[in-house]
Specification:
binds zinc ion, Glucose Oxidase, domain 1, 534 residues, single chain, alpha/beta
């Protein structure tokens, strides 16, 4: 069903009745979350016991099963796995990387996700051969046979400029309160697409040249490694083992390589591909509402992670908060008007696959991809470019979606995503939590996670503002993303506010006001010339 013009106007015109938050319910939510909270028990199991949850890995399968059972135990209805096509799972069995000449040293490195392992110990000399673009291949042709190839520019040591652990002050929060002026630059987007797929082309080049393995430099100093990679598609077969190395170790190798003595590495990396079922699963559960015609509201966070450590701040934290909100609300023993749905997404780290699948399966149909370049691109780049958007019947049922993503930091407010019509409602919902540090409604957008494509089709999907803590400086995707970096008071506060927002949205007289159904936007600068080399 497509929305008629009149229906769109009616949606925009519908202002929400700013119902005062129910103080009795909020007091119960606060008590359940702060005095009887379970969020830290939940997140400890997800991290210490289950561990890193790469999409379709055995650990992620275990997490899907366990979280689904938890939702059932909380008393939710119809806890279920909603599958979607993703690709192969991958896990690390063991990994050892040493320098053997000119001296012996253990190096800090991790296999790059979805690359093959060496299978047994291999020893080979290194060559420093930085490659960033296709045209760099010519420089190294004929020089890589039998070598371990260092593919990143070494650069120089980088000192931290910001504090490693940070909470926002009011000046920092105020900076987010800026209306996001839209930018449409089709040429820039097409250039970005051309660069997409470079890793696969480099793998093919290295294999054809007879390289034994490749090494990339970690993008952060301080010994942090993450091993992010691609090549999960069922028909993608990377040929050359890759490792990501701590920046300090990597630069040392590149300095030694300028000397006269040969630099030799020994690598022994063992990994397993899991191809039995190429479908990933979103975990979904419902707290049924009393009015079947009133639609539903939703909370979500991504359950999958990278494999450098235990995926604690990214994003067991958000997942545990969503689960805790479910536990708190189910425990109230009162039915909301609208159904409250809880979602733990999979495939987020590879391009928001889980939330895109939910949109495709439940909410909208976007025009098919006809351009062959776009068709091969990651949906993260291409999905939002497909017009027209045709709403499915469920499109009008989703009254609000709240996401939690950026680590363990407590909630400081919420991004209104350029929709001024929701600001006063959010302000009133935050008011009871001002003394807990959450009071800011800002007009800017925030990107990078599972509410993004809801916004792209005009659905009311929102993400909270959170204190950054050490998320960007240390834990994001890294080998220290463990339980130690989670802050109990912050997570309990977040669970309480998430539960309260869901309760308010589920009982509001009218749904949050939506923008019109998006259509293909005009170029921001129709007079721009594009530089293909950029
Ligand atoms: Zn992430």
């Amino acid at each position: 069903m497509r929305l008629t013009f009149c229906a769109v106007v009616a949606l925009v015109a519908a202002m929400p009745a700013v119902a005062a938050p129910d103080p009795a319910i909020n007091a119960k939510i606060v008590d359940a979350g702060l005095n009887h909270g379970e969020v830290m028990d939940t997140v400890q199991y997800l991290t210490d016991r289950i561990g890193g949850r790469m999409t379709n890995s055995p650990q992620m399968r275990m997490a899907e099963k366990w979280t689904k059972q938890r939702f059932t135990d909380y008393g939710l209805s119809n806890a279920r796995l909603e599958p979607f096509e993703f690709g192969r799972g991958w896990s690390i069995d063991s990994s050892q990387v040493r320098m053997t000449t000119p001296r012996v040293q253990q190096l800090r490195a991790i296999p790059v996700a979805w690359t093959p392992g060496t299978g047994s110990a291999i020893t080979a000399p290194i060559i420093v051969a930085p490659m960033r673009r296709d045209r760099d291949f010519d420089k190294w042709r004929g020089k890589l046979n039998g070598k371990i190839v260092l593919v990143s520019m070494p650069g120089e040591g980088d000192e931290p400029k910001e504090p490693a652990f940070e909470r926002y002050d009011s000046a920092a929060l105020a900076k987010f309160d800026k209306f996001p002026m839209p930018k449409t630059d089709t040429a820039a987007f097409e250039r970005a697409l051309k660069r997409d797929g470079f890793d696969a082309r480099r793998d093919a080049f290295l294999a054809a040249e007879g390289a034994k393995a490749w090494v990339s430099k970690s993008y952060r100093d301080g010994g942090l490694i993450s091993g992010e990679g691609e090549g999960y598609a069922a028909d993608d077969r990377r040929k050359v083992p890759g490792i990501q190395m701590a920046a300090e170790d990597y630069r040392k190798l590149t300095r030694l390589a300028l000397g006269t003595e040969p630099v030799t590495l020994e690598m022994d990396t063992r990994v397993t591909f899991h191809e039995g079922d190429t479908r990933a699963n979103n975990v979904i559960a419902d707290l049924p509402g009393r009015d079947p015609k009133a639609g539903y509201v939703m909370a979500g966070a991504h359950l999958d992670s990278w494999v450098g450590a235990d995926g604690a701040t990214d994003n067991a934290a958000g997942s545990a908060v969503v689960m805790e909100a479910a536990r708190i609300l189910a425990g109230l023993g009162v039915k909301p008007k609208r159904t409250i749905r809880f979602a733990l997404w999979s495939g987020e780290e590879q391009g928001l696959y889980g939330s895109i699948a939910y949109l495709d399966q439940h909410l909208v149909t976007r025009a098919p991809i006809t351009d062959p370049v776009l068709a091969k691109a990651n949906p993260y780049y291409s999905w939002a470019k497909r017009f027209p958007i045709t709403p499915k019947p469920e499109f009008n049922e989703l009254a609000a979606y709240f996401n939690l993503y950026n680590g363990s930091g407590k909630i400081r407010g919420i991004y209104a995503e350029g929709n001024p019509a929701v600001a006063s409602t959010f302000q009133s919902w935050l008011a009871p939590f001002s003394a807990m540090g959450a009071d800011k409604v800002v007009m800017s957008r925030t990107g990078g996670t599972d509410h993004v494509f809801m916004q792209s089709v005009g659905l009311p999907g929102f993400q909270f503002i959170q204190d950054p803590l050490d998320y960007d400086s240390r834990t994001h995707h890294s080998d220290v993303d463990t339980f130690d970096h989670l802050k109990a008071d912050d997570l309990r506060q977040a669970a309480v506010i998430m539960a309260s927002f869901l309760w308010n949205a589920a009982n509001a007289e009218t749904p949050l006001p939506r923008p019109p159904l998006p259509t293909k936007p005009k170029e921001t600068n129709p007079f721009a010339y594009s530089d293909d080399d950029e």
